């Protein structure tokens, strides 16, 4: 009961902080990019209540509950508020249906995470870390050998041109390496660096993760390979010192960060820092959800024809209704940008709304529930290994906020994480640190 009350208090704090963020920063500063207020009435109270209810079902920290919590603060809360404020065409009936569905599924996410399921692993007699390391290092060597002449260090204003020039050269498996780098490879090496016993081995793992980040930035201008490091270290710090109050601490820190940054002036480097943290990280899931709803409700849905790998697996030839343009490019054209920009969206918007509207939301959330059960079954009971697994999954979860679930699993490294968790290697040794 005491924990529930604390979660309720910090949930209220975060909900109010995001509401203030939207009204007093996103609309005034980023209104030109599509943050608006199309309705303001007592229904906002329903939004407020809905943003708070799911978090009180969060209990013990484990891999599944971390995934659910990540979805809660980076997707769920922004989507609830922004869909209400920012959708031009949604009716109150549809808004209530979507909000209620998301709220119920968010509660189910936490409920499933709390289940004490019997763990399932395939025991192997060799070190799985050695196999994964050899495989990922081999990929890195091939990548450097093949593309080293195209490496170029650019500032953030020039990386989009670099990416446009070089991405067209990627063929075959090379096309998947950039998303794998963020989704699994860099988090994998960084997490082992934090929890292995031997200092020399830890430094090797850290070095490989940094080299991967350098290669992906120099070749494709991927900013995410830079920003993921402080994010992972921040998660590690909280796990190390505030594990028992993890959910409370994260909600408190996020709220304080939001409220503090809003007070700072939008000039120079402060403008850049505020835009990265507040708009491009915390708020973007809600913005894309509202844009995807308005666009695909009017022009029609993909009916999952956008999932190329699924179509190939089923061996069917399907008709994708939007030609050669991806969802993100369609939204770019809709808001007046060019197809060089791509406004990708979270898995609710991509595999839910754009795929099949409100029924699509039900479908993708049911699939997500089964995936959470899988993570619950495959996660460890060892507290130290749980921490390593949580950090290893951060990249995959970042992908979920920017692309669909199917793409995150198949192209973004999620499949590798499941394989890694499936096998239990008794020879893997983690540093014996206090929780």
Could you explain the architecture of this structure?
This protein is 70% helix and 1% strand. The chain is mainly alpha-helical and 435 residues long. The protein has one domain. It has a two-stranded parallel ribbon with strand order 1-2. Helix 3 (63-86) packs antiparallel against helix 14 (347-378) and helix 7 (177-195) runs antiparallel to helix 15. The protein is globular. The model is unreliable at 426-435 (pLDDT under 50).
Distance between the termini: 24 Å
Radius of gyration: 21 Å
Low-confidence sequence ranges: 426-435
Decide which structural class fits the backbone: mainly alpha
Q: Overall pLDDT, averaged?
A: 90
What profile does the largest beta sheet have?
2 strands, parallel
**Share of helical residues:** 55-70%
Number of helices: 18
Order of helices and strands: HHHHEHHHHHHHHHHHHHHE
Q: What is the number of independent domains?
A: 1
Count all strands and give the number: 2
- % residues in beta strands: under 5%
Widest sheet, order of strands: 1-2
Name the shape in a single word: globular
List keywords for this structure.
single chain, 435 residues, mainly alpha, two-stranded parallel ribbon, disordered C terminus
